[in-house]
Design goal:
single chain, alpha+beta, 7 helices, 4 strands, elongated
C-alpha cells in the first residue's frame, strides 16, 4: 500500500512447457498428417530418419502442434542441435487400414488417370494390332476322342513387328505406371515428358526383371 493506493506487483508468467509424452500422437509432415502412433513408433521413425526435429507433432485429442524437437524422450540423445538437420522425408511409412488403402488407391487412380491411360496405350495398341492380324488357328475337335495335330500357320511380318514393340514398350509402360502413382502420392508435379524420360532410364532394369519373372513362369509351367 503506497499513498492510499494499492501497488500491484506483477510476476513474470512462466513459460508453459510442452506436454509430456502420451500414448497416441499425430505427426504432420509438409501439411499431411500421419497417425495415430505411439511413442515406440516415434522412436522407430526417428531412428530411420522419417521423423526429424523440424516435424510437428501433437497429442491425440489436442489441437496444438509443436516441433518434435520439444520431445526429450525422442530427441534426448541429440547433443548438437546446432548442426544442420537432415532433409525432411517425402513420406512417412506406417500401418494403414484397408479403408485407408482403398481411399489412397482411389485418389492415386483419379489423380493420374489420363497418364495411366497413355502409358497403357504403349502396349495396348501394338497388342491389339498383333491380335487383329494374327491368323486364326482352328481348335481341334475333341469329341472324337483323338487329338489331331494343329495345322501349320504362317505368321505375317506385321505380327512379329508388333510383338517386338510390345516387348520393347512393356518396361517403359510398367515403369511409367510406377512414376505416375509415386508422383500423385507425393504431391509432386512433373510433366508427362519428364515421367516418360524417367521411365525410359529404367528400361534395362525393368526388362531384366520382366524376363526373370516370365522365365520363371515358363519354367514352372512347362518344366514339371
Amino acid at each position: 500500500m503506497r499513498d492510499g493506493m494499492t501497488l500491484l506487483i506483477s510476476h513474470p508468467v512462466s513459460r508453459i512447457p510442452y506436454p509430456v509424452m502420451s500414448e497416441q500422437w499425430m505427426v504432420r509432415v509438409e501439411g499431411r498428417e500421419y497417425g495415430p502412433v505411439d511413442e515406440e513408433d516415434l522412436r522407430e521413425w526417428k531412428a530411420e530418419g522419417r521423423l526429424i526435429r523440424a516435424n510437428e507433432v501433437r497429442r491425440l485429442g489436442d489441437e496444438r502442434w509443436f516441433p518434435a524437437a520439444a520431445l526429450p524422450e525422442i530427441f534426448a540423445d541429440e547433443t548438437t542441435p546446432s548442426e544442420s538437420p537432415a532433409p525432411p522425408p517425402d513420406l512417412v511409412v506406417r500401418r494403414r487400414t484397408w479403408p485407408e488403402i482403398y481411399r489412397e488407391s482411389l485418389r492415386i487412380y483419379r489423380g493420374g488417370f489420363w497418364r495411366f491411360m497413355l502409358f497403357g496405350l504403349l502396349t495396348a495398341v501394338p497388342m491389339f494390332v498383333l491380335q487383329w492380324y494374327f491368323p486364326k488357328v482352328p481348335l481341334p475337335d475333341l469329341s472324337s476322342g483323338s487329338i489331331e495335330a494343329l495345322p501349320a500357320v504362317t505368321v505375317p511380318p506385321i505380327c512379329w513387328l508388333m510383338f517386338a514393340l510390345v516387348v520393347l514398350a512393356w518396361p517403359v509402360s510398367t515403369a511409367g505406371f510406377q512414376y505416375v502413382a509415386d508422383d500423385v502420392l507425393r504431391g509432386r508435379r512433373r510433366s508427362l515428358a519428364e515421367q516418360f524420360a524417367a521411365a525410359l532410364n529404367r528400361f534395362g532394369r525393368m526388362l531384366s526383371t520382366g524376363l526373370l519373372v516370365y522365365a520363371s513362369y515358363f519354367f514352372w509351367f512347362f518344366g514339371p
